[in-house]
Design goal:
Blueprint lengths: L1 H6 L4 H14 L2 H14 L4 H13 L3 H6 L1
């Protein structure tokens, strides 16, 4: 997924999948970064906002999570 994201840096789906992989691996910092990048590419993608909120919640950033 990281190679795909590097090969297609403007593809939101690649960044979403990389974020989900990081999330399920327990790397919330990497997940947060990937989801934020996906949102930068498509600010109206509800799945990206939801997943970012979940990653922020896992990190204890409840106010930021609610804002997503």
């Amino acid at each position: 997924l990281l190679k795909a994201s590097a090969a297609m840096p403007r593809n939101r789906v690649c960044h979403m999948l990389a974020g989900k992989a990081a999330f399920f691996a327990g790397d919330m910092a990497a997940a947060t970064k990937a989801f934020k990048f996906a949102i930068a590419l498509d600010p109206f993608a509800p799945d990206a906002h939801n997943d970012l909120g979940q990653a922020l919640k896992r990190q204890g950033n409840l106010r930021q999570a609610v804002a997503c």
